[in-house]
Amino acid sequence: MTSTRFAKLDAEDPLAGLRDSFDLPDDKVYLDGNSLGALPRGVPERVSQLIQQQWGHDLISSWNSHDWIDLPRKVGEKIAALLGAAPGQVICADSISVNLFKLLSTALALRPGRRVVLSQRDNFPTDLYMAEGLAGILGPERCQLRTVSADRLLSSLDEDVAVLMLTQVNFRDGRLHDMAAITKAAQAQGVLVLWDLAHSAGVMPIELDRRNVDMAVGCGYKYLNGGPGAPAFLYLARRHQDQVAQPLSGWMGHQNAFDFSPQYEAAAGIQRYLAGTPGILGMVALDAALDVFEGVSLNAIRDKSCALGQCFVDEVLARELPGIDLVSPRRAERRGSQVSLTHEFGFEIAQALIQKGIIVDYRAPGIIRFGFSPLYNRFSDVENAVTTLSDLVLNQGYLEARFSQKGQVT
Ligand SMILES: *Cc1c(COP(=O)(O)O)cnc(C)c1O
Known about the structure:
Elements: H1 4-11, E1 22-23, E2 29-30, E3 39-40, H2 42-58, H3 62-65, H4 71-83, E4 90-92, H5 96-110, E5 116-120, H6 125-138, E6 144-148, E7 161-167, H7 179-187, E8 192-196, E9 215-218, E10 233-236, H8 280-290, H9 298-319, E11 325-326, E12 338-342, H10 346-355, E13 358-359, E14 361-363, E15 367-371, H11 379-395
Parallel strand pairs: 2-13, 5-6, 5-7, 7-8, 8-9
Antiparallel strand pairs: 1-3, 4-10, 9-10, 11-12, 12-15, 14-15
Helix pairs in contact: 1-11, 2-8, 4-8, 5-6, 9-11
Pyridoxal-5'-phosphate binds near residues 95 and 96.
């Protein structure tokens, strides 16, 4: 039952109406939009029209008549508006992993006297894996990955570092980096910065241009709600474009792909960061999903995100639940849009919450993540989550054997 306090917060929420733009199940409280965003109502119709009319009837002419060929750029520009990026710097393509490869290569080429990719030890693993993969190809003379703890990042910048690769919001603890200060400190030492916006795009104002960021990547399927495996995006500041090639030199990044020339000639601008044929089904779904953001202020989104998270933190701490600790920063301005708790039986508690309709996820070791998506989450969702969590922990309901079965995806 919703208490008057939470009902009042929902009633006063200027973004409350946006929830109607999503198709959400009535029997679940969905707090995993940081992993897979919910389904916007506009998506099924657009995808169905694409399949039936464009693919089914208009067939191959759709590359021109429905402008399929231009979608990576058009969807990229829609995303650019959420990133504070002027036109011509963002393209929608591939996955974060693949885009990191292209941009790390670019960064090393732009800083020929330097070879280190500096990152945070507890960064999302794929970011580190991709840097290691690139180092394996280029060899230690041209590329080395160096990882340090978050508090040693700035003191580890030196003249060997070509690029500082960081995720703005940490996927485990939800901690938010100071993008402006770190970017400035790195650039003062001649280091390029590459920000991974997987957990920040669509949930806060970002201001890539104003912060003078060099490069960025991000995800289509988290807070942008583009659907499972939606294409990702990459940003490269205009001042760095056209200076170096990127190694995944596929035909979609060619200056004239349909000349079918045996010679590769990189396209001008951001388009050279395309490699192969874009997945049109996924890109149209993301394109439709992005319409939800039209006319919505990112400041209002951030304000609600902070309010949801702070409500949750304050309620959990006030209950002093045995064995539960807050892993995320206590103050909203230090967090992204997720709150992480830890408990010795974190995995079992996450499973029990999911069974009871509170959809969260688990990240080893022992961390339960509660993601707040301001476009569709309500303050009553926060209340439901806290009440259910509190009952489970106090009654040790998570100890039932069925909650310890591990699936392949957690
Ligand atoms: C979700 C996420 C990814 C995902 O990468 P893909 O290659 O798109 O699967 C990468 N980095 C971070 C920080 C993430 O949170």
